[in-house]
Design a protein that fits this description.
single chain, Immunoglobulin-like, four-stranded antiparallel sheet
Amino acid sequence: MGLSTHVLDTMHGRPASGMTVSLFSTGPGGERCLKQFVLNQDGRNPDGLLLTTADLQRGTYRLVFDVAAYFKACGVALPEPNFLNQVSLDFGVAAPEQHYHVPLQVSPWSYSTYRGS
């Protein structure tokens, strides 16, 4: 099953194509960047799963979404400093054999997430 994400731009009502996302493992040993990617036309990782079931470990992770850069690239005039610059989502994986889907719905002024299916 593994780990996946999907980002929807709620300001424009479309997937957040072109947004940069970074995935980190976090925990007692510190933070380690596992991968960085740019979302495809569907607002998803172009390579599919972020981590496969074999690679997903029990532990804590962080997804960092570069929200301000995305909206600036879309031509949105943002104040300085931006209300949202990067959105960091910290989450835990207790059962790595299950699918963990971490979607983000975002505008320049708000965001929402949940554990999806």
